[in-house]
Structure formats: C-alpha cells, structure tokens
Write a sequence for this structure.
C-alpha cells in the first residue's frame, strides 16, 4: 500500500502542476488579447481624420499668444482701489415751544415697548410714527396694524 500512496501523491502533484500551467497559459492568452485590442484601438485613433476629431470635441482649442518679456506689467486702467465707506450721520430733531426732541430716542422707546409686549424687534417690517409735540406723544403703527398705541416723550 505504501507504493500506492506514493504513486497517488505523484499523480496529484502532476495534476496540480498541469492545472497551474494551463491557468498560466490562459492568463497569458488573455494578456495577449488585451494587448492586441489596445494596439488596434490606437491604430484606429491614428487613422481618424482631423475633421472627425474636431467634430468629437465640444470646444475648439485656442492657442494663447506668447507673452513678450519686453512689456512691463502695467496696471489695468479703470481699476481703482476701493474707497472706505464714509459713515453718514443722520439725526432728526423736532423743536417745539423751546423744547427739542430727538426722533431716534422716540423710535428706541417704541422698540422697547414692543419688546416688552412679547414681540421680537426683528419682526418689525414697517414702522410709522406720528409725533404730536403739543401733547408730547408719539403714536405708532407697526406692520400696518393700527391699534392706537403711543409713547410719551
């Protein structure tokens, strides 16, 4: 029996070697097929006419003119440095009967009252103020909702 196992082992080894060799030949054949396909494709591309190549491209390629070294780098005319914004001051005062009222303070009072009522000041889209200096009251309408509200100044 010992001879049979040795013979069997040799046979298995030979079969395995044959299978490996066959697989290697198959891989080599596939590599050759790929190489021939690639070279065939390259030859097709070489054979194409320039007109056919132009039709395939979406945008024509434009060559940029070469820059000359003799021209100095010049600033573009019309470009000026950005000016810093000037802060504008606008203050409106109302004078009546030797008294002076500043409208900004009146608007701040309206905002405080509106906020105290539980609203957000950022929700104000429109604010109309009607000032009556005789009775020292500023009536206001916020977001077109007239409710007869006023602040005293």
């Amino acid at each position: 029996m010992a001879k049979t196992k040795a013979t069997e082992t040799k046979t298995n080894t030979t079969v395995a070697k044959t299978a490996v060799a066959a697989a290697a030949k198959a891989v080599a054949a596939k590599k050759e097929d790929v190489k021939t396909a690639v070279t065939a494709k390259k030859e097709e591309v070489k054979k194409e006419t320039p007109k056919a190549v132009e039709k395939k491209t979406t945008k024509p390629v434009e060559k940029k003119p070469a820059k000359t070294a003799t021209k100095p780098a010049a600033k573009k005319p019309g470009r000026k440095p950005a000016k810093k914004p000037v802060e504008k001051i606008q203050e409106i005062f109302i004078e009546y009967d030797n008294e002076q009222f500043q409208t900004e303070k009146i608007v701040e009072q309206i905002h405080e009252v509106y906020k105290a009522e539980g609203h957000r000041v950022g929700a104000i889209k429109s604010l109309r103020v009607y000032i009556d200096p005789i009775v020292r009251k500023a009536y206001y309408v916020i977001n077109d909702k007239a409710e007869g509200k006023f602040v005293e100044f």
